[in-house]
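The aim of this short unit is practical: by the end, you should be able to scan a pair of folded records and say something sensible about each. We start with the first protein, listed as its amino acid sequence and then its structure tokens.
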Amino acid sequence: SDIIFHPWKKEENGNQTRVILYTITLTNPLAPKTATVTETQTMYKASQESECYVIDAEVLTHDVPYHDYFYTINRYTLTRVARNKSRLRVSTELRYRKQPWGLVKSFIEKNFWSGLEDYFRHLESELTKTESTYLAEVHRQSPKEKVSKQSTVRRRKRAHAHLRVPHLEEVLSPVTTPTDEEVAHRIKHVAGSTQTRHIPEESPSGFHLQSVSKLLLVISFVLVLLVILNMMLFYKLWMLEYTTQTLTAWQGLRLQERLPQSQTEWAQLLESQQKYHDSELQKWREIIKSSVMLLDQVR
């Protein structure tokens, strides 16, 4: 909706360009309901009127997550193959302005391909409707009109030899299927423009995703280890508090008991208290030592 067509402008190199602005509806729950799109179309000078058109469309979708990281290149090749038949070939490529990390890249590519499938499926449906409407209008014409139209078309035979010029064959090559020579040329010719940047086929995104997965696995392991150490530290501190409460309660109970009556009973009481204090002191030392070690590990 809200389509705005700017007029075609002829460039110095002979190509023609124009800008189209429109709004699309999105179904992704992580994106807004609508988004604005800027599409810059380039029609190459190799195009021949009524014979062949080659148009590259650079599509920038705004207001979507990570919209400043990527853009889309769609190539439309429309060729005349018969008197009443044309062939439309569409190839597309996802290009990056900034290189995202693994999870973000997989998210972008997944939504990119699903959106393209929906878009071109809709385009196919609309073209089918247009074709059906055109055939219905042709069938409604009178026989005389059909004959006159067919005779006129037969007299206007067009030569196809001029379509085989070298620069046209180069333009007709699809965006996503370069030859080996083009791949080598793009690898060597990495300039500031995004149009000349090329990621070699030998380094697919799967290798990058695998390294990211290993990194996430290591980070997860470290987090689990930290959680275990924190639980052990919490247990040691809880034991320390429990021991303190037990000692306080024991001393309170000892005060309420009957006092010793003889020197032997006093000696036994002092000996038992000494043993108890020694054992508690040893426990406290072990607990404090373990707590200090755990704190050092966590730090």
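Turning to the second protein, read its sequence before its tokens, just as you did above.
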Amino acid sequence: MKRKVAEQEERQGMKVQALARENEVLKVQLKKYVGAVQMLKREGQTAEVPNLWSVDGEVTVAEQKPGEIAEELASSYERKLIEVAEMHGELIEFNERLHRALVAKEALVSQMRQELIDLRGPVPGDLSQTSEDQSLSDFEISNRALINVWIPSVFLRGKAANAFHVYQVYIRIKDDEWNIYRRYTEFRSLHHKLQNKYPQVRAYNFPPKKAIGNKDAKFVEERRKQLQNYLRSVMNKVIQMVPEFAASPKKETLIQLMPFFVDWISLFGNGRDSSREEFSSS
């Protein structure tokens, strides 16, 4: 999609440049016609006039003619002058329409790019716009696509005062993909461990704890987005600082580095046991 849009923008840009050059030519011709008309009116007779219009043929006056013919020639120049002015106005209007169309397309592409990032996470080319870290290395950019993280949903578990939210985390590494389910406290524990192990992680914002109103739907949705952005940023940094993961980008390697991503359902093979194990430490 980006390549197609870039090609379209390049083609439109070439058209704009061609029209701009044609516009400049028309301006020069317009000045010549104005000068010719003024000269004919001032002298009241014809004189040798250089070739000024070469679209439909050459207009050349080689010798002096009677005053009536001079007026007719001046009238012809005036008509052509009007035609050039109309063409110039149409060109300006077309340029304005083209500019508005390009601006609308750029806005649409930007919106679609952001929606795509929200759906599948950043890949090479997106990092400069999505990551909070402005000092991303070439290594990080070239390897970011090895892992993608989403938090597609969040749901409420428990009853009444003991109710809590659980976030679905979907991870994909090449052909490996799996889901885990974690509470906010587990994300917070992961953040503290990563800070201690990788001081660079402290540069990333982690959504703060909230005691009142933490079950409000709008707040939960905002926290879901914040946790998703946090995990994606942390994955960028982990890839940069852990060469063994880049050498072997797979599920087992990630779990060894960060047990947070253990898939308890696959580990125990039973949804009920996995759920109990999953939340036992929360």
